[in-house]
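Q: Hi! First time doing this. I have a protein sequence and I read that you can turn it into a structure. Is that right? Here it is:
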Amino acid sequence: MARIGFIGRLAPEKNVGILGELAASESVEVLVVGDGPSRDELRKAMPQAHFTGRLLGEDLAAAFASLDVLVASGELETFCQVIQEGMASGIPVVAPSTGGPLDLIEHGRTGMLYTPGSRSSMEAQVQSLLDDQTLRDSIVHAAHQQVAQRSWQRLTSELIEHYAEASLAYEMKLAA
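A: Yes, that's right. Below is the predicted 3D structure, encoded as structure tokens:
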């Protein structure tokens, strides 16, 4: 049985409820790792899902390692730490095609993107990964290589370069 997971804060903006139909399916197990204000509501809506609560350290690493697919369902994400952690852990990631996930996921190469708010689109992307081991392996490899290049030093250097370019463009505009 395939294990599909969500890892993160259980809050309305994370859209975890989109996993409800998958949780009711007999062909997959849904694992929800995290805690937050929506925990009780989600447990009632998805009684078949396994809720672990908040995990840290080795327990969190074991949860990541137990997944076949990670669904990062939040549509308001910016930095996407969980997506990066999934990529680094060798787990294919499915996320909405909006916001931060667009900076990390190239559809079909480093992960799978779905139409924001569309349960059927999300489920189709999850199913494509479950059905195609070659695709999963390819995505895991490419995503791991990509995220291995992301470090705080590199990201900070890129940000400083963007500021320098913006400052130069502003100075040129003032001089014109």
